[in-house]
Design brief:
The structure is a homotetramer.
Chain A lengths: L14 H18 L16 H10 L1 H25 L7 H14 L2 H10 L4 H27 L9 H32 L1
Helix pairs in contact in A: 1-3, 1-4, 3-5, 4-6, 5-6, 6-7
Chain lengths: 190, 190, 190, 190
């Protein structure tokens, strides 16, 4: 990055270890989603199948929120996996973008918790979407940076990068509309 | 999957990374089981060996549930390990099945918690069994898909696959009966 | 184990993946120790350095318990590391012993929590020691089994195994005395 | 370390496994930061965007504390990564220093929680700084020990080590002043 003389202690990240950290954080974020699921408490007859069954069914939205968040994080992980395999080296900028990606990925369990607690509040949905938006912005930055710093390997052509970037920008615009809709239109509609 | 032209950014999962994610999620699910174990609280003489001992013994079912869930998750992990070693490649369908497997594996700590809290309620047991059932259905789908997509390596013969599939289907049928028994017969028996 | 014909789906664990699971569970057990540390709550002046400082110092035993448990788990991990490096293969019995080891290693955070909550209760100390004892019994079983099944690599002589086994048995006997002392002598002494 | 005859069971840590444990603990510490984030509870109209939005904004310091702690842990991890890549072997002393580093790294989530709860209390800030200080002392010990035990690889010159050591000592002195300022000057200033 700077022109000062080269030291062996210049930041130097192995692609493998960044992969470990990334996979580790995703594995944990996906698993702690389940910590948010609360046990039914207000049960009169502790042995009643009907009561416990209904108490669990009553919280079906929380369970759905668990499964959806799990699938979203899996999707993030699979997308990153595909992209990461094409990186020939990890520059400092790419490293910094990964910290950004991980901040937001690790934040998803909080969003899932918030949405599970306030499922009818558009703000909870907007927080979730904003987190996904921040993550997707990181992905876009990753693509643009890797392209500029020529960090993609030889199998990736300029056309591939352009197509991927365009798809991502389209998703980002869609997300912005969804967030604005939830924050400004939804409260008025009710 | 589709016939459109090949891009370097087509979903492409390394067998190693999926393994990391899988092992990571299992390691976490197994370890957070212990977070469910509650400390004894209603102790009058904080220094009394008898009282603390009895308070802990009183919750022996929770501890047993911890050990059983740990062993069940280990069993899932060992079974998957053996199967996974025979996969020559990870197709998109196999990847999707892995997300399914992980959703249910990560859900086991909740089931363990539920069963530890309502040990005498057949519904809690049915929820646990249903989760194991959903996981096992995923395993069956994995075997059938890997066989159809010719993703098993050369050491696996059609006879091996058939035998494994038959064993799994038999377990699934047994599980269905156990679930039905817990939901419909048990409440009547009492 | 049985004499039936060989199948590609016989349990077959890669040494690497068992290592991942082991390291993963240890990493998590060591990190969730910190989840047990409670924040000081009864503070009148939220901005007072003295009050917060004293509230934290008041819980020094909990912090000490955190550090000691962390170091104990590190010790377990280092010991296993050294032993594991000498295993040439993972038999089914060795795999089963690893599940045993992991059950008790993952249980240490609960013990740490219990001891931090009831530091003056010999029963809490006995529970902790019993968990370490159960882990050490697993280590002894691992050494004896690996020796009998000739799973150690060529650098390990019969003399090395005998010496290691003797040291471990001595520790186990010491632990038994400590546990008995805590359960039977300590309550009488007071 | 000692002069007694060599045994195959002398402590012998693979560089890879220590790396796994380190990365695992960092991944978990970074992810459980989010467990500290509490959901807003005192909301009258559960469906009000304004109320939930304001409740979340009210806790902006907790969210900032989450992001800062995440970035600090990332910084620690990146720094260690760079250093670790230059180690040719893991001696017993280097292993012991790693346990020290991990104790303090895993303690950061507690510090983040404390600071998020008492943001205006200089003692909370001092605890956070002291933990970072303890970690940095470990880094200094790592550099000095690796240098003395000739554990750095051939690309590292004496000049590189001296420069790194000097930079670290300067940071440590700065930290001491900041801690003293928070503990002794800040309470007087108010």
């Amino acid at each position: 990055m700077t022109a000062k003389e080269k030291s062996p202690f210049d930041t130097n990240i192995s692609k493998n270890r960044l992969e470990f950290l990334f996979d580790g954080i995703f594995a944990i974020a996906m698993t702690i989603l389940v910590l948010e699921l609360k046990l039914p408490e207000q049960i009169h007859d502790k042995r009643s199948v009907d009561e416990l069954g209904q108490a669990l069914l009553h919280h079906w939205r929380t369970f759905l929120s668990y499964i959806i968040s799990f699938v979203i994080l899996s999707g993030f992980w699979i997308g990153h996996n595909t992209l990461y395999a094409k990186l020939a080296r990890i520059t400092k900028a790419i490293l910094a973008i990964h910290v950004w990606l991980l901040v937001w990925a690790a934040f998803i369990p909080f969003c899932a918790h918030l949405l599970g607690r306030y499922p009818s509040n558009p703000a909870a949905f907007a927080v979730y979407l904003s987190t996904a938006f921040a993550y997707a912005v990181g992905l876009l930055a990753l693509i643009i940076t890797a392209d500029r710093q020529k960090a993609f390997d030889a199998t990736v052509s300029a056309v591939d990068v352009r197509r991927l970037r365009r798809g991502l920008i389209r998703s980002l615009i869609g997300m912005v509309f969804l967030i604005l809709y939830n924050v400004f239109i939804m409260p008025v509609l009710r």
